[in-house]
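Internal QA ticket QA-208
Title: Verify multi-chain structure generation after dependency bump
Assignee: T.L.

Test input:
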Amino acid sequence: MRKIISTLVLLFFFTASIFAQHTYVLLAGISNYGDESNLGQTTKDVKALKEIFDKQPNTTVAILTSKYASGSNIEEKLNAINKLAKPTDKIIFCFSGHGTTGGFVTYGPQLFSYQTLAQILSRAKAKEIFCFIDACKSGSVESDASANFGFESNSSHPGLTFMVASRATEVSWENNWVGHGFFTKALLKGLRGSSDKNRDKNVTLKELFDYVYNDVTARTKDTEAPQHPQLIGPSSSYNTVITRW
Amino acid sequence: METKKFNSGEKARGGKNNTKTILTAAGLAAVAGAAVGAASVKFTLKRPEEEEPVKAETPVAETPQEETQNQETTQQPQAQAQTQQQTPVSGEDITTPQPIDSTGGTGQATQPQPTDNPTAQQPVPTTPATEDDIDPDLIAQQIAGSQEVDNTDIELANIITVDNMDIAYGPDGSEYTVAMFHTPDGGQFMLADTDGDGVYSDVFDLNGNYVGSAEGNLTASDLQEAADPTGGYMAYDTEAPIGEDPTNDIVATDTHNGTDEPIQDGMPAVTEGEIATIEGGNPEELVDVEDVLAQLLSSNDDSLAELADREIVVDDEPDLDDDDDDLADSDDDDDDDLDDLDDDEA
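Actual output:
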């Protein structure tokens, strides 16, 4: 009898593990573009994010830095994640580096458009996809995607959400005192629990954004170039838990 | 400087020989003097479009910042049925697929990984793999868990490395929470919030003398995060600064705010021609970002050149002036001013 119960318990946990939500995280940061446009905090950004996501249960974390963060390599990793992720799984993509209107700049340098990113991720079966972009003019994802790709069109992924560092016309800052990009610094603190307003040890997307927005705007409000993060995605994703503690 | 035995009942973590840490009257006066004539905070431009390398400035600097490069490590090959291990080997990047167990989680390696290392202990296959032997899911799993870290990553050393938090006292006995930190060159200082605004902006030496102001509007949570870089849990930030209302920077795509136009591009932080400041530099040191962007993306790819051209058109938008505040406060459902936005922005 005891053996039967033990077997059933093991079978239950095995089944539960198979169907448990899995999170796939791809981190891409570029500090060394190989020219005078190099940055100083961006690969530190993604490495610090890796420390956080590595602590999350049922999470696979991939990281690409500088010369490995080419457009083709990023696309390859995303396609692999798309292949693996089930509808119940979650996909998270984080980028830290140069950006411009319509996309971010991968190693090369090459422009990786938000349209392309949205198209790649639209092929995922996972219902929840989150992109955190710490780059200049990253808010242009909304104008670019909606105009050329279409959040409203059937070709877009209904569960695709962007949290970006700045408005479409704003630059994004980094600083040696802060030790990271301003957006990523807030993200790091928020993901680690500083944003957990209801103190339930679950950091939701909305909690995270509210905290990040507060932190970044407060830090830059008296400067010559204020920065305003943006949240672009379905409101149904606001209560999605991004990190658990 | 008078010192007294530190007697807070807490474990002494700072100061010298269990004495109180004192901020001198002269030091606090210097803070006030500095605040009167303080210039605007200088920040590092994070991205684009400029070509000046990021260089750090520090008010306490005796030595310039140095770029640090990662110690290069690589994965040793996996021995059969052994757990994954890493051994630092100079001269190579980290480039590994990360083996994933059957449940999809990252786990210990339970099967050998292909490698070119001659010291591998894994068995060498005796027959060439065929298509039937290749598990596409396994390959996808390895790709999805890739660890590809460039050994030439540029990571400027943090100006402050927080050692611990402590309490310092003013001449009148006022208590100040201070962050004890050291600089890359080993200098030890204190970072204090002397005006109670939640920003740790004042740097003192260990004798309590003011030495300069910090950049970045550092808060207690910033220092806490910096003090523990392992990525562990942090409690809810009860001292979070008050920022702006985020409403106008949220786009709910399932409702899409009733418009195809971005609801808030209104107040460009930079003017036509894209002006950006370099780190630590004078705001007058402007760079034409369009030129830099073109240089950054310069290639034989005509599509990129077209994008650079389109970039100019996109940035050539009307100066919204005072209407920007109206846009910021506009109702999401109905705002006629949105119709005035340049359609080319999209």
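Spot checks passed. Helices of chain A lie at 2-19, 42-53, 71-84, 114-121, 140-149, 182-194, 205-220.
Status: verified.
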